[in-house]
Amino acid sequence: MDQPSRSAGTVRPGGRTARVRAAVLEATQDELVERGFHELTMDQVAARAGVGKTTVYRRWGSPSGLVTDLMNELADQSSPHADTGGIEGDLRANAVSVLNALNDERLGVTFQAVIAAGTGDEPAARALHAFYLRRIQEWANVVDLAVARGELPAGTDGAEVIRAISAPLYYRLVVTREPVTREVAERSVARTLAAARAGAFVTTGSRG
Known about the structure:
mainly alpha, Tetracycline Repressor, domain 2, 9 helices
């Protein structure tokens, strides 16, 4: 699945409500990057954003509420899936997008902070799940297109293909703490594509 290419709150001009939301989400991401989820406080976000504490508490309610809205915004800012005309190019574009996001000094740290938060905070876990589900569903479309072109077997589960592309990259990022490199991304694409072509991602009900 691909990732957003911008910080939250840096686009979307609008009225005062939009500007307040943008400032608060930008401050939330700043705090996550610098301090992590467990030191994220409503008061500090309000001060950093230049917004009254009452407004922040009333609208977002808790640090988990801030993280949920931040993840929604990052999902909204994410680019649509690639359309290179072939499944190999599309999957490579997905892997490179994930690679670039995870190695980004701001986005990569943001994801690590929210992933860490999700292990012990249920609202943060739900926000993380919703974010990745949206991105998986978006990129699963490239697999459906490949099936329609005859590049992959009928019944191939697009969501599982996209998960398989990203899984080795995230494992290195948050479990083994190894570098996430272009070589790792390319290997993930090659292995996933070989498995998909062999029918490894065809759902049980679609076989035969």
